[in-house]
User: Fold this.
Amino acid sequence: MKSPLIAPSVLAADFSCLAEAVIQIDNAGADWVHLDVMDGKFVPPLTFGPKMAADLRPCSSSVFDVHLMVFEPENLIEDFARAGADYITFHAEALVHSHRLLGAIRDLGKKAGISIVPSTPVSAVEPLLPYTDLVLVMTVNPGYGGQTLIPGCLGKVKALADLRSRGVGEYLISVDGGVNLLTAPSVREAGVDVMVTGSAFFDAPDKVRLVRELKGG
Ligand code: DX5
Ligand code: ZN
Assistant:
C-alpha cells in the first residue's frame, strides 16, 4: 500500500497566527496545505477568502489545496487562482454546471477538484470523473473540524479507486473529516491518495511524528 499525501487543514489552527501554521505544516514533513473556505450559507461558518491564500502563499512552499464550501463557487475561482492556489475543489452539491466549472479551473492553469458530502453517492459525480484532477470525499458533514469520521463513506473511496482502475479518469482521491491516528489505517486501507487532517495535526505535540504515522510509517 503506498503512503498517502498529508494535507493539514489550517481550519484547526489559531487564525491569528496562520503564517506560523503553514510554516508548521511545511516543517512537519506534510505535503499540502488545505485551506477550508466557508461562506456561511453552504455551511454555517465563515472562514476566509482569496486574500488569506495570497497572504499565506509566500510563507509556504507546499501545494495549496483550496476546498470551497460555498454556493456560487464560480465567483471565486479566478481570485483563488491569482492567489496561488494549486488545487481548487468545489462541491457537486453547490451548483448545477459542474463540467463547466471544472473546465474553467483547468483553463486557469489549476488542478480542478470535485467534492461530495456524506449523503451524495459516487454515481452523482461519475460523469465528471474524466474531467477532474481530484475527488474529495467528505467523511463528515462539512463545516466544522473535530467531528467523527463516518465509516460508511470509505466505501466511496474504494468505488472511486475501482472506477479509476477501469480507466474512467486520472484523479487523486482525498478524504476529509475525522482523520486521525485511530481512523487512518482504515482510510489508507480504502485506497486514499490524500488525507486531510485538521484537529489531529494541530493538537499533536509532535507533528513530524504524527505525519509519519498518518502515512503508515
Ligand atoms: C470540514 C473541513 C475539514 C476540517 C477537517 O468541513 O472541510 O477540512 O478541517 O477537520 P478534522 O480533521 O478536525 O475533522
Ligand atoms: Zn476541507
